[in-house]
Write a sequence for this structure.
């Protein structure tokens, strides 16, 4: 039974996630549910990847969307500040979760290796052709079925597997297992519905849309040969080597002892380059514009405050003049008061003298 599915709106990330049991029916139902959900938004089908990680009792499904498409479908209509915040938060969290040692060294771009004939199919049909001496690849696994391209043309499929990459120990007439051209810990599994091959892989991934046809020279090709990427950590890769009996195959696996490139980091870089850098630039310009408006308003307020201070300074000056005059008046009043007291004191002293003289004159008169 599958648990509740979570999507980009809830996760704030370009993922759909779902956990289910290891029962075949539950695994099939979970895959169907996730694929139908992606197909409900047609733009998302341009490129996405389904990853399945197998745990002890459950399987964790995750649909990884193209980050640019995620932005266009889920973030573009939001407020620009919120859009930039969600996208930047996703990039920051993703980069913090992936250690440098978990990111592989490189991936071959098959469009750029025309001169490297080691993996180019030989088209020489002559009976006298020496396959052993030929520098091109020979394979007996070629599909001659008729297919329809995305633009409606009928063409021959011509899908083939490079013989030099086939791991014979894990392959049969019903399916093929191949190593990658790159030196990374990964196998390609082309399954047959009637049989299964049991390998202790760490997780699997299936690419859809442009992520599957990215290396195809025919951009109108369709995918008629489903294949699975079997991903291994270091321990499970070493366990696989123990199952190999031939030195030739063991040499191939030993040469591919590195982790593959972390596609999440690549998707973060694409999101930054194609969408987020422009949005953050717009946010910066908007912030600068708003800051400029605030500075202008602040400048106006400072001007008004300067006028108020100037007026206050004038009032203080006038008050100082009034205070000075008031002080002079107080000083004058104080001096007048002192003079009045002095005059009064003199008058009192004179009165006392006159009164004393009067008493003495009267006393003499009484004696006579």
């Amino acid at each position: 039974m599958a648990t509740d599915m979570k999507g980009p709106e809830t996760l704030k990330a370009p993922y759909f996630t779902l956990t289910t049991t290891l029962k075949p029916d539950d695994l099939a139902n979970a895959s169907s549910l996730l694929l139908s959900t992606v197909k409900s938004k047609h733009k998302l089908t341009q490129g996405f990847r389904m990853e399945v990680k197998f745990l002890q009792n459950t399987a964790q499904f995750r649909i990884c969307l193209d980050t640019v498409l995620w932005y266009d479908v889920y973030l573009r209509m939001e407020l620009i500040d919120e859009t930039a915040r969600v996208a930047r938060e996703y990039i920051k969290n993703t980069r913090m979760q992936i250690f440098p040692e978990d990111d592989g060294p490189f991936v071959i771009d098959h469009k750029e290796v025309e001169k490297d004939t080691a993996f180019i199919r030989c088209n020489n049909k002559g009976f006298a052709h020496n396959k052993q001496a030929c520098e091109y690849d020979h394979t007996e696994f070629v599909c001659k079925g008729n297919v329809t391209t995305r633009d409606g043309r009928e063409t021959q499929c011509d899908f083939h597997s490079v013989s030099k990459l086939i791991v014979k120990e894990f392959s049969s007439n019903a399916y093929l297992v191949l190593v990658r051209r790159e030196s990374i810990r990964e196998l390609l599994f082309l399954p047959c519905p009637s049989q299964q091959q049991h390998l202790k892989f760490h997780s699997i991934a299936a690419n859809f849309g442009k992520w599957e046809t990215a290396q195809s020279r025919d951009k109108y090709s369709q995918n008629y040969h489903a294949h699975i990427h079997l991903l291994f950590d270091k321990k499970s890769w070493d366990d696989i080597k123990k199952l190999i009996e031939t030195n030739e195959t063991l040499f191939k696996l030993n040469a591919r002892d590195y982790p593959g490139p972390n596609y999440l980091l690549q998707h973060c870089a694409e999101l930054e380059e194609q969408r987020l850098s422009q949005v953050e630039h717009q946010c910066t310009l908007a912030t600068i514009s708003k800051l400029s408006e605030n500075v202008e308003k602040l400048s106006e307020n400072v001007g008004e405050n300067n006028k108020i201070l100037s007026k206050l300074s004038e009032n203080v000056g006038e008050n100082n003049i009034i205070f000075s005059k008031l002080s002079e008046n107080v000083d004058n009043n104080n001096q007048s008061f002192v003079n009045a007291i002095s005059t009064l004191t003199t008058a009192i002293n004179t009165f006392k003298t006159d009164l004393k003289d009067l008493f003495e004159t009267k006393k003499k008169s009484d004696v006579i």
